[in-house]
Amino acid sequence: MAIYLDSNATTQIPPRVVEAMMPYLTGHWHNPSSSYAAAREVRAAVEAAREQVASLIGAHPDEIVFTGSGTEANSTVIKSLAREIGRAHSRVVISAIEHSAVIRPVEAMAAVGFEVEKAGVGEDGRLDLAAFAAAVVDTCPGFASVMWANNETGVIQPVAEACHIAKKAGWFFHSDAIQAVGKIPVRVDEVPIDYLSISGHKFHSPKGVGALFIRRGSPLEPMIRGGGQESGRRSGTENVPYIVGLGAAAALMESEQSGGGLARVAGLRDRLERGILTGLGEGADSVRCNGSREHRTANVAHLSFAGCTAAELLPALDAVGVQCSAGSACMTGKSNPSHVQKAMGFSDEQAFSSLRLSLSIFTTETEVDEAVGKIIEVVKRLRAAS
Q1: Catalytic residue among 140, 163, 324, 330
Q2: Do 64 and 200 lie in a common domain?
């Protein structure tokens, strides 16, 4: 059985989530917009899921809009705000380490005349708040988007501080929280952001469903128009089974947070790092732990292995039953070094030698210990052959 250490790419769907979905694939298949009793039961299931997602992040249920993915949620906000602020004399500020689901639509804005700034990060992978504050100005309309946690390194960004800076300038503020929700406490009742994006398959719901938090009173221009579902904010007949699955996964992760599950995952991540560093040694000429050790999600270890490349490590590890990645799954096969790691000041050599090992609530201690042994064995073998 392979050891899965790529939970930032996607997560397994546990039986309780599948069981919650099944009735809406079989007996309760009705359209939730219809008026008869059976359809009203289906509508009730959608609204129950909305309450579960809202509860996970401290939102009101009517602030949650279901989408087909986190990418759709990001694009919906960005395109809506582009229209809201207008092209003339406006500015958009993002961090230099955003996911492509934010970078690409913002770059498309730049191509048609919007002024776009990317604020840098420090060696620890955290947003440079001074650079961000310098880019956010109160002399023009604008919006800012800063991810809550980075998808490659797991480093948690100072979202509350960045939000305060943007709001003080009178700007809208969005956070791509796709790699944070379900992995660390994310509370929109504590941080006054306007918009937040969620992707269910990052915390044990199926692929193909996400959500967008829109704070009451915040404007939204729908990207998908039609029959007026989701209170007119995202038309199209709802994907009921997957929405129910998202709700069940949200309830699961809320339970894990309150029950110490995330602390257990953090302990396993630390055990994984300690084992690798003990077996191979820590330092620039051996193994480096990248990014902030204090401000990071519970489940991610990002390591660079001197004397090896990720292109060598990944197939060699796969052959011995360890599944992991070099960074974002969306960038697999790209020949350029990660923009996240370059923004953190990595050399090309360090960037190309980096692996992301990401755990979940279903990772076991036995799997971690077996993975440590196999990673050490593969790294030593590759170094000896070079």
Answers
A1: 330
A2: yes
Average pLDDT over every residue of 216-221: 96
Altogether, the residues listed in the chain come to a count of: 386
pLDDT, tens digit, 9 for 90 and up, residues 63-84: 999 999 999 999 999 999 999 9
Question: 21 in helix, strand or coil?
Answer: helix
Mean pLDDT to the nearest integer, 237-253: 97
| 331 has pLDDT over 50 | no
Beta bridge partners of 10: none
| Listed residue (297, 312, 374, 304) closest to 11, CA to CA | 297
Closest of 214, 198, 190, 193 to residue 247, by C-alpha: 198
Question: 311 lies in which domain range?
Answer: 3-12+260-385
Specify whether 232 is located in the same domain as 266: no
Dig out the tokens for 171 from the structure: 């700007």
CATH number of the domain to which 180 belongs: 3.40.640.10
What is the value of pTM for the model shown? 0.95
Q: Domain boundary residue among 222, 257, 292?
A: 257
Task: State the burial class of residue 342 (Cβ atoms within 10 Å of its Cβ: 0-12, 13-18, 19+).
Answer: middle
Predicted pLDDT of residue 288 = 95
Q: For residue 352, what are the contacts with CB-CB under 8 A and spacing of at least 6? A: 309, 310, 311, 337
Q: Is 330 a catalytic residue?
A: yes
Query: What DSSP character marks residue 99?
Result: -
pLDDT value at 333 more than 90? no
Quick one: which of 353, 357, 346, 360 has its CA closest to 125? 346
Residues 6+ apart with CB under 8 A from 235: 222, 224, 225, 226, 227, 228, 229
Position of tokens 């804005």? 109
Do the Cβ atoms of 50 and 240 come closer than 8 Å?
A: no
